[in-house]
Automatic annotation (TrEMBL):
It comes from the Bacteria. Residues 21-113 form the Thioredoxin-like fold domain. GO terms for molecular function: transferase activity. The keyword Transferase applies. Residues 164-223 form the Metaxin glutathione S-transferase domain. This is Glutathione S-transferase. It comes from Bradyrhizobium erythrophlei. Signal peptide: none annotated. Pfam families: GST_C_6, GST_N_4. Gene3D superfamilies: 1.20.1050.10, Glutaredoxin. Keywords: Transferase.
Length: 232
C-alpha cells in the first residue's frame, strides 16, 4: 500500500504543513488507499523535504510530482474533465500557494508576535519535542526565509504579501461548489492544504482574520475538511 510521509498533526489538521495536507486531501478525494506516517525528520526524503510517498519500489517527493505520479499509477480521474484553461488556472493558483507558504511559515517561526503561541502548540501536542530541537528548527527556518527573501521583510510587509494571495483566493472560490464546478478537483485539495493550516489554527494572525472574514473561503475549507476527515 502507498505510504504518505509528512509532518505531524496540529490543531486537528492532518498535517501542519500545507504541502503534506494538500497530498493527504488529494489522496482522500481521489479514493486512493494509503497509510499516513507522521514524521519530523526529513533526512530520508527526496531533496530532504516533506512530504514524500513510498509506493512499492518507487519513492516520490514534491507535492505536485506526487499528484502526477498517483494520477498516472492509479488512473485518478478527478481532473479528467478539466479544460486547458482550467488546467492553466490550476498551475497559476498552485504557484501562488507556493508564495503563501512562505508567509504562513514566517508567521509561525519568525514573526515574534505569533511564535510563542505556535511553539506552545507544538510542545503541547508533541511533548517529545525538545527546547533545543525547536531552537534549531527556528534558526534553520530563519536562514531559509532570508535566502528565499521573505525573511528580509518586516512582519507587516510579509503579512501584506500573504493577504494579497488570500485576496486572490477569495475572488476565485465560489459561494457554492468548488473552483471548477460541483465536484472538487486537485486544486481544491491544494487550496485546502494551505487554508486549513490557517483557519483551524488557534493563532490569531492577520491571515486567519482574513480567512474568517470571507464566508466563501470558510465554506470551501469546511467542505473539503469534511470530505477528507477521518483518522489523521
Amino acid at each position: 500500500m502507498l505510504t504518505l510521509y509528512s509532518y505531524p498533526t496540529l490543531f486537528g489538521v492532518a498535517d501542519n504543513n500545507g504541502y503534506g495536507l494538500k497530498v493527504f486531501a488529494f489522496l482522500r478525494l481521489a479514493g486512493v488507499p494509503f497509510r499516513h506516517e507522521h514524521i519530523f525528520d526529513a533526512s530520508k526524503a527526496p531533496r530532504g523535504q516533506l512530504p514524500y510517498i513510498v509506493d512499492g519500489d518507487d519513492t516520490v517527493g514534491d507535492s505536485d510530482t506526487i499528484l502526477h505520479f498517483v494520477t498516472r499509477r492509479y488512473a485518478v480521474t478527478i481532473d479528467a474533465a478539466l479544460t486547458p484553461a482550467q488546467r492553466t488556472t490550476n498551475l497559476l493558483v498552485a504557484r501562488m500557494l507556493d508564495d503563501l507558504y512562505w508567509v504562513m511559515s514566517y508567521s509561525r517561526w519568525q514573526d515574534e508576535r505569533f511564535w510563542p503561541a505556535f511553539q506552545a502548540a507544538l510542545k503541547r501536542e508533541h511533548p517529545n519535542l525538545s527546547e533545543d530541537g525547536l531552537a534549531k528548527a527556528k534558526a534553520f527556518n530563519h536562514q531559509r526565509y532570508y535566502y528565499q527573501g521573505i525573511g528580509r521583510f518586516d512582519p507587516d510587509a510579509a503579512m501584506a504579501r500573504g493577504l494579497a494571495d488570500l485576496g486572490a483566493l477569495a475572488a476565485l472560490i465560489p459561494a457554492q461548489g468548488y473552483v471548477h464546478g460541483g465536484k472538487p478537483t486537485s486544486i481544491d485539495a491544494a487550496i485546502y492544504g494551505f487554508v486549513a493550516n490557517i483557519y483551524f489554527y488557534d493563532i490569531d494572525t492577520p491571515l486567519k482574520q482574513f480567512v474568517v472574514a470571507h464566508k466563501n473561503i470558510v465554506r470551501h475549507c469546511g467542505a473539503i475538511h469534511e470530505a477528507v476527515s477521518g483518522a489523521v
